[in-house]
Amino acid sequence: MSFKIPRLLYFLSVIIVIILPKSSGQPQPKRYRSLYGNDVSEHELTNILGIGIGALNFLMQGQRDMNEEVPDVIPQFGTMYDFIVIGAGTAGATIAARLSEIRKIKVLLIEAGSNENLLMDIPLFASKLQFSNDINWKYQTKTSNKYCLGMSNNKCNWPTGKVVGGSSVLNYMIATRGGAKDYNRWAKMGNVGWVYKDVLKYFKKLETVDIPELQSDTAYHGTQGPLHISYPKFHTLLAEAFLEAGKELGYPVLDYNGENMIGFSYLQTTTVNGTRMSSNRAYLHPARNRPNLHVTRESMVRKILIDQRTNRAIGVEFIKNRQIIQVFASKEVILSAGTIGSPQLLMMSGIGPAKHLSELGIKTVQDLPVGENLMDHVAFGGLTWIVNEPISLRLFDMINPTLPYMRDFLMERRGPFTIPGGCEAIAFIDTKNSKKRDGLPNVEMVFIGTAFKGNIILSTLMGFNNQMSQIWQKYSSNYGWSILPMLLKPKSRGRIRLLANDINVKPEIVPNYFDDPEDVKTMIAGIRAAITVGQTKTMQMFGSQLSNDTFPGCENYQYDSDDYWECAVRTATFASFHYTGTCKMGPRGDPTAVVDPRLKVIGVEGLRVADGSIMPEIISAHTNVPIYMIAEKLADMVKEDWGYLNN
Known about the structure:
The protein is 28% helix and 17% strand. 53% of the residues are buried. By secondary structure, it is of the alpha/beta class. The protein is globular. The strands form eight sheets. Strands 1, 2, 10, 11, 12, 13 and 25 form a seven-stranded mixed β-sheet that branches. The protein has a six-stranded antiparallel β-sheet with strand order 7-18-19-20-17-23.
């Protein structure tokens, strides 16, 4: 499909661009009139016309992006490849692209979902994508009486990407690496080659940092990688104040992807030119013309084919266009289906806990603790401060065509639509050692430039029950800001189990949030730290008032007591979508390990796993960029093992 703009419309667009009002972005001294700080209601017709013209340009850009996609193929039954990669998410897309750099090998990348499109790449719309059945697996946790109590049927929603680019298309684009001690701890567990100095080179290799003040820091940052890292092109006044509040509390404003993590910062994001940059755009688009890289979309893998005489993975069976297709790998099968999908496929293929597999009638190929060690960064979603001035993100303003916000994004890729899901800034703190600045944080505070409780879309996304939804709905017209305190180093561990010997039956997910009492204590400390931010002089300049609604089921506890906050976190339980650990990496001989430090499945030849599931312990950060790192490192290990590394 192609688009043409008539000459008159093009001429009109030029005139409108010339006469567009140029706001300074600075607040007026006494009263803020808009998110931009000035009066934005003077050019309503200009805004509406700008949206129309911008939308046409946006559609044309979307068409150009579609032309960048790797063509879809239908492999013939029995086709032989050198490597087969299962899952075109963050890790799989990276691995397939890197392996296909070796022109003499043939790579097949299998993805259950369809193509990414430009609508998915509008940063502010990040949360809206998780409603889609087409690009989201829409997992849910098992009903619990200990967490997710404010959700329908006491189940938390666990969105996961089902699209080329995987969860890098659904996530909030927050680029964090974790601290050096995170990876040094991996190495101390026996994972040779995963100490921080070994993984740092891959963090640098994968990125092009577009933040000018960080480009000269070549010790920690790269400038030649496929994944662009930048600040969003707009910050609210409240986000600026959040950083100042951090200074008021004695914290530095710093590069948390540099030497130290503890402090405050604007978000570094996986965006470029104001739009999302997924693994698809970063890695697969540049590889689209490689004849040795084949991608098959809308292809549901049923199992990994294993020669049980040799215990070697020899291929993959999948369904495409209602046909069962088997393809074979002469060298390796690499599983990158994610922390839920990878253990599910391993168990479906006979690799997992023998007793569990036997109960489902699955013949055991290798008895391994697949599905154990499940981790996530659980968060508390109940802290919103209300302000009177129109200086925060509000849904009604964002979609109002008479205001300039949509126009600014569609025509110039600037303004609040470049903010990823409303998340603007971040703080890493250690609640146990508040004065220490060079250790690992145990709590992250995500600053969100909107009244979280007033976001009706978000309450629906989280699956709130009626009582919780009513609390949130009453704030829908308010301006405000929110902090999401997040537990970074949970001690609790969950698990994933099959419910049937059928790939179409979603597995049982039991995260066991707050199973360890220490996690509850740390979460409460994080809540109190966030409340302290709201009490600073800086945040009080805006008249910030904490919306301290009593949560359903917590009425019998004294407000602000530890018992009250424990009830609250078990009610407004927010999954952070950082699922990890279910195919744990460890040295051979470790009874808790599924893969060894070279990510080879223990006891099965020709099979590796590379995604968030291999993390032996969750890192102190959002997991997307570390998963890119894992994929980059895996690609080099594969090349090295097969003699391609220096080719």
